[in-house]
């Protein structure tokens, strides 16, 4: 069984400031971890994923995340926020590289607000 | 090439009516997933198809929900005797499969279902 907890349903940062979105997971098998972004009235777009190997993964739009097994965390960061980053962000976990038969288990999401 | 498409984009129906939601996956993607996104429950995994087969239907919320996939391509999610709690955005995703692993899921824009 797997679960994901995203701390903070809403996060507000100033344009140019560091973005930090927190994600903790629980998994009975080695996890595969994902961050997705959802813009209004659109589907989900993959930002980055951790499967195996390097624990610091880089994604699109300047985002990166670090897998920390000891902390069961996969926090998402971006050094400098842009207005275009305003969206809903979802952390997800699965038992396989893309989800497989169990699909993805998502967190509740974090709404990122960028203040000008 | 084209991404995952879903139709209709919006559907308003009266309580008790049946609805059909359609998903066209990316060509060549043998894995297909349905998810439901609602305010109360977040993103829930409903069902997974590998080819035309759905190994596990236990994620479907009730026996009013059914899904099928034909020709390894188009999938239909059917909700019978709709209830107000069925109101949500229904998302479809597809992915490539290699061996026993499925890879990155590509999501469609979703169908917003409103039951009045």
3D structure, described in words:
The complex is a heterodimer of chains A (116) and B (116). Chain A is an all-beta fold and 116 residues long. In chain A, 0% of the residues lie in helices and 55% in strands. Chain A contains no helices and 11 strands. In chain A, the strands form 2 sheets. In chain A, strands 2, 4, 5, 9, 10 and 11 form a 6-stranded mixed sheet that branches. The radius of gyration of chain A is 13 Å and the shape is globular. The model of chain A has no long low-confidence stretch (mean pLDDT 91). The mean pLDDT of chain B is 91. The termini of chain B are far apart. Chain B has no helices and 12 strands. In chain B, the strands form 3 sheets. In chain B, strands 2, 4, 5, 8, 11 and 12 form a 6-stranded mixed sheet that branches. A 4-stranded antiparallel sheet of chain B has the order 1-3-7-6, with no helix packed on it. In chain B, a hairpin with a 5-residue loop joins strand 6 and strand 7 (75-79). Chain B is mainly beta and 116 residues long. At the A-B interface, strand 5 and strand 10 of A face strand 4, strand 5, strand 8, strand 10 and strand 11 of B.
């Amino acid at each position: 069984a797997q679960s994901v907890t995203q701390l903070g349903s809403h996060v507000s940062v100033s344009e140019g400031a560091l973005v930090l979105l927190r994600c903790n997971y629980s998994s009975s098998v080695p996890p595969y971890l994902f961050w997705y972004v959802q813009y209004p009235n659109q589907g989900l777009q993959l930002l980055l994923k951790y499967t195996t190997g390097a624990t610091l993964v880089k994604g699109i739009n300047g985002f990166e995340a670090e897998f920390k097994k000891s902390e069961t965390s996969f926090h998402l960061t971006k050094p400098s926020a842009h207005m275009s980053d305003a969206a809903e962000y979802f952390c997800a976990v699965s038992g396989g590289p893309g989800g497989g038969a169990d699909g993805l288990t998502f967190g509740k999401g974090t709404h990122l607000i960028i203040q000008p | 090439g084209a991404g995952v498409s879903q139709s209709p984009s919006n559907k308003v129906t009266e309580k008790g009516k049946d609805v059909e939601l359609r998903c066209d996956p990316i060509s060549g993607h043998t894995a297909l997933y349905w998810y439901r996104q609602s305010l109360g429950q977040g993103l829930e995994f409903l069902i997974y198809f590998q080819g035309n087969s759905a190994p596990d239907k236990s994620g479907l919320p009730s026996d009013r929900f059914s899904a099928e996939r034909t020709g390894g391509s188009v999938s239909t999610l059917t909700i019978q005797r709709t209830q107000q709690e069925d109101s949500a955005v229904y998302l479809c995703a597809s992915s490539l499969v290699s061996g026993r692993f499925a890879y990155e899921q590509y999501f469609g824009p979703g169908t917003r279902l409103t039951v009045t």
